[in-house]
């Protein structure tokens, strides 16, 4: 079988590995001259930066790809489990450590916020139960195939639906289970892991903390880009042909079937096509003549991000790999995002990979990836003005919290915003995670991993089922592989 994959994002690469491992002839067409899409890296003044993702969860999905390919992973990709997941700091200078170990985390919360440790442990257990009850239905298979629903474990899971908090919000669950406003804010932040709003997203998403405080957060040796690099080179060893700098112009169809793609003005025949390009643009740009699933395409997008990549000519021993500086009013932040703008007291995330890999920054310096959540680019925002204002707000906050004039320490700056995210990866409106998960039906309204109108067309990546983020993108590749295998 000859398969064309449009896009060398992480899901495109993973799909290529799975198919090539079963002797498909796979060609990946990538518009950029590098692999990885959002999961890429760059150098600036002697500092190395991971451009996009910074948090690595569910490494077993990477491991599985080496297993499928029949290779030992360890010579190519290594990772460590983080004992400390995140350092949290509020404007009143309370600092709380998010230990990976649930007991240590719960004890820290009891010591700092006087919330009984057992209450936190009970909540984390409920997160785990929800994940174990629903994960296999919502994440591992296509939701759009009857076979997914016709088996005993699914029927049993359905009976537990009333305990899954589907019809309430994440924030309401956190207020009910945890109570303390700072703790509610801390757990509400997990909604941002798929670009959602905790005051709207369904309570079932309280499964997300289980990924960090149950299964664990990890760091790949050499940085996040090693995920892309190791899988890209694995794909090449399996015979996948990568064509960089080749932007697919259209998907060719004949009588309800996909028969190939057009690149550089040339028609190329393929038995099947997998799009790792954002679903929205796949239809609008590559299939303008086809009937579009408008309801799916018009779902609201997830949040985007504004990132400042700063070389910092100083070392901050109190900071760790993942650091959060919270705002005073979390709801106001999400209200601002919903209104298409950025609050003046945003929660700021600072990722410093040189804490794990000293070679990522010159001696005595640190590579800061400073990010705030921002709305997707709906075409109405004045981004230059918003970026300028937010940069000042971030600098003010970090200067006050860390007690040093941060701006004077900056040794080179690059900026990524929703416009550049869209232009570099073709993600509609620069959304990080495809469509948002702000309603109970979101999982069902996300585009399936196959086209039900055009035979031989499949979809993987953050804008298709099961959603954005590295683990779910890798799962989308597995689902596409299973669908192709079953046809
Ligand atoms: P993408 O990365 O979206 O890549 C798609 C590829 O397709 C691109 O390379 C693009 O050039 C190519 N393409 C598009 N159109 C064409 C065409 N016509 N022809 C050829 N090629 C085409 N996830 C986490 O798990 N943890 C995190 O901490 C995290 N943080 C993030 C922070 C940021 C700033 C960003 C941007 C994302 C973050 N994410 C995180 C989300 C994660 O990066 C994405 O969900 C995931 O990488 C998306 O992968 P993908 O396979 O959908 O492809």
- The value of Rg in angstroms is 22 Å
What's the total count of β strands? 19
Bound molecules: flavin-adenine dinucleotide
How would a textbook summarize the main sheet?
A: 7 strands, mixed
How many helix segments?
17
* Spatial shape: globular
Q: Ends: how far apart?
A: 12 Å
Helix content: 25-40%
Q: Decide which structural class fits the backbone.
A: alpha/beta
Strand fraction band? 15-25%
Q: Major sheet: order of its strands?
A: 7-6-15-16-17-14-18
Can you walk me through this structure?
It is a single chain. The model has no long low-confidence stretch (mean pLDDT 95). Strands 7-6-15-16-17-14-18 form a seven-stranded mixed sheet. It has a five-stranded parallel sheet with strand order 9-2-1-13-19, covered by helices on one side. A three-stranded antiparallel sheet has the order 10-11-12, covered by helices on one side. The chain contains 17 helices and 19 strands. The protein has helices at residues 10-20, 60-68, 102-113, 117-138, 146-149, 152-159, 170-177, 181-188, 208-215, 225-237, 279-286, 294-297, 330-338, 383-402, 418-425, 442-445, 470-486, and strands at 2-6, 25-30, 41-44, 47-50, 79-81, 84-89, 95-99, 218-220, 241-244, 248-254, 257-263, 266-269, 272-275, 304-312, 322-325, 348-352, 366-374, 410-416, 457-459. The longest helix is centred in the N-terminal third of the chain and has 22 residues, at 117-138. With 487 residues, the protein is an alpha/beta fold. The radius of gyration is 22 Å and the shape is globular. The two termini are 12 Å apart. Helix 3 (102-113) crosses helix 4 (117-138) and helix 4 crosses helix 9. Bound molecules: flavin-adenine dinucleotide.
């Amino acid at each position: 079988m000859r398969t064309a994959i449009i896009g060398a994002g992480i899901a495109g690469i993973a799909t290529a590995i799975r198919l090539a491992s079963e002797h498909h002839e796979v060609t990946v067409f990538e518009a950029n001259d590098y692999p990885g899409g959002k999961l890429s890296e760059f150098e600036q003044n002697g500092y190395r930066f991971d451009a996009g993702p910074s948090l690595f969860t569910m490494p077993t999905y990477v491991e599985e790809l080496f297993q499928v390919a029949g290779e030992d992973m360890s010579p190519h990709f290594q990772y460590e489990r983080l004992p400390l997941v995140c350092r949290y700091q509020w404007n009143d200078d309370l600092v709380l450590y998010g230990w990976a170990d649930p007991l240590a985390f719960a004890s820290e919360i009891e010591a700092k916020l006087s919330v009984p440790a057992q209450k936190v442990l009970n909540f984390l257990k409920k997160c785990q139960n929800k994940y174990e009850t629903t994960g296999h239905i919502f994440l591992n298979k296509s939701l759009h195939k009857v076979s997914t629903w016709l088996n005993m474990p699914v029927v049993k899971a359905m009976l537990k639906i009333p305990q899954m908090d589907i019809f309430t919000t994440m924030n309401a669950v956190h207020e009910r289970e945890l109570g303390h406003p700072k703790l509610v804010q801390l757990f509400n932040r997990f909604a941002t892991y798929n670009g959602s709003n905790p005051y709207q997203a369904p309570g079932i998403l309280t499964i997300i903390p289980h990924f960090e405080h149950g299964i664990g957060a990890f760091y790949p040796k050499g940085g996040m880009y090693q995920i892309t690099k190791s899988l890209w080179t694995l794909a090449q060893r399996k015979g996948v042909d990568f064509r960089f700098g080749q932007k697919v112009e259209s998907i060719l169809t004949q009588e309800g079937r996909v028969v190939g793609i057009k690149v550089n003005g040339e028609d190329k025949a393929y038995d099947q096509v997998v799009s790792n390009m954002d679903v929205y643009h796949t239809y609008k740009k590559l299939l303008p003549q086809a009937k579009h699933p408008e309801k799916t395409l018009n779902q609201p997008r997830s949040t985007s991000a504004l990132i400042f990549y700063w070389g910092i000519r100083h070392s901050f021993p109190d900071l760790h790999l993942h650091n959060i500086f919270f705002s005073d009013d979390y709801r106001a932040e999400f209200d601002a995002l919903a209104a298409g703008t950025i609050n003046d007291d945003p929660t700021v995330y600072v990722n410093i990979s040189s804490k794990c890999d000293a070679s990522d920054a010159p001696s005595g310096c640190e590579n800061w990836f400073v990010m705030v959540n921002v709305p997707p680019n709906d075409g109405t925002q004045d981004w230059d003005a918003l970026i300028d204002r937010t940069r000042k707000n971030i600098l003010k906050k970090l200067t006050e919290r860390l007690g040093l004039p941060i701006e004077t320490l900056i040794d080179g700056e690059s900026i990524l915003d929703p416009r550049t995210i869209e232009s570099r990866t073709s993600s509609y409106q620069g959304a990080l995670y495809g469509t948002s998960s702000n309603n109970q039906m979101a999982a069902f309204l996300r585009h399936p991993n196959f086209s039900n109108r055009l035979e031989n067309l499949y979809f993987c990546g953050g804008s298709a089922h099961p959603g954005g983020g590295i683990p779910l993108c890798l799962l989308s590749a597995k689902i596409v592989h299973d669908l192709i295998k079953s046809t």
